[in-house]
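In the design runs reported in the main text, the only information available to the sequence generator was the tokenized backbone. The following block is the verbatim input for one such run; it is reproduced so that readers can re-run the procedure and compare outputs position by position.
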């Protein structure tokens, strides 16, 4: 029975992607915004999580030097977040059906020299990022703009039929995937061969694979894997961010920051220091582009700290 439900779910998802890809390009953004509004109204639990997260972070964000002051309330940011998600969903559907060039060609790439300098060391590159902007589009754009394939670290879907569909899309533009379970060995192999790995590090970790950091004024668990791997292999760590510009076209920006230099201390204290420093890049990004981050997950779960 479970497999039948999985098949129905995957078929419905595929038909939805076909429908979104069939929409004329000039109407795709309007459709995405409409989907975002509907998601905001219908997904009450996710809306509540987003508003609660934003409300607790907002006092800290408004004191941050990167704060732009575009939004006044948590509800405004939450609605804009859902609109970005809805628009991203339509874009990903178009990517899946081979209509990515229209998105890639309008992207702006900033800080490309930072990536090239790291790549020229011939030690591989570990690109660390978060759920920013349209993160699927950002990952897939590497082949177009940098002529390199990215090995993306992703979680395998419970539904194997759905996982096959999503995997095909992710690999359709020259990228590869490494699933989070037992990911270390293949990651080391990619680095050894001077490959590029993309890793989203803004999900809540646990005490076995993470460290406690300060993030947007509250304690949060963060993955220590990027720092541990960098110590082990010497791979350059390059923070990568993506966001959607304001304006009629809402084009995407792919931003490479300078390579992060580890503090040199390989103890747990030093690892925590590096993880905290890397998290500051994302923190500054969220304050500057609050609607471009994935507020709808419980980033601070298990940390148990109130807002500052």
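Verbatim output:
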């Amino acid at each position: 029975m479970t497999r039948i439900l999985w098949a129905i779910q995957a078929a419905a998802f595929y038909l939805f992607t076909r429908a979104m890809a069939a929409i004329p390009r000039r109407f795709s953004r309007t459709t995405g915004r409409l989907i975002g509004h509907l998601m905001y109204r219908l997904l009450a639990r996710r809306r509540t999580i987003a508003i609660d997260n934003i409300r607790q972070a907002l006092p800290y964000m408004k004191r941050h030097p990167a704060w732009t002051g575009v939004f006044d309330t948590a509800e405004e940011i939450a609605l804009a977040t859902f609109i970005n998600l809805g628009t991203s969903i339509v874009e990903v559907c178009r990517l899946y059906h081979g209509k990515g060039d229209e998105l890639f060609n309008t992207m702006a790439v900033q800080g490309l020299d930072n990536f090239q300098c790291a790549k020229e060391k011939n030690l591989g590159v570990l690109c660390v990022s978060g759920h920013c902007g349209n993160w699927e589009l950002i990952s897939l754009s590497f082949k177009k703009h940098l002529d390199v394939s990215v090995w993306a670290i992703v979680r395998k879907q419970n539904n194997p039929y759905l996982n096959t569909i999503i995997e095909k899309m992710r690999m359709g533009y020259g990228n590869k995937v490494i699933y989070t379970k037992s990911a270390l060995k293949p990651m080391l192999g990619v680095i050894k061969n001077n490959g590029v790995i993309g890793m989203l590090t803004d999900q809540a970790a646990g005490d076995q694979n993470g460290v406690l950091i300060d993030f947007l004024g509250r304690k949060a668990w963060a993955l220590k894997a990027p720092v541990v791997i960098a110590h082990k292999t010497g791979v350059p760590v390059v923070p990568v961010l993506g966001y959607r510009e304001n304006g009629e076209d809402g084009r995407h920006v792919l931003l490479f920051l300078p390579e992060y230099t580890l503090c040199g201390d390989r103890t747990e204290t030093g690892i925590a220091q590096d993880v905290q420093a890397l998290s500051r890049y994302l923190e500054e990004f969220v304050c500057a582009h609050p609607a471009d981050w994935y507020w709808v997950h419980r980033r601070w779960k298990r940390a148990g700290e109130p807002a500052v």
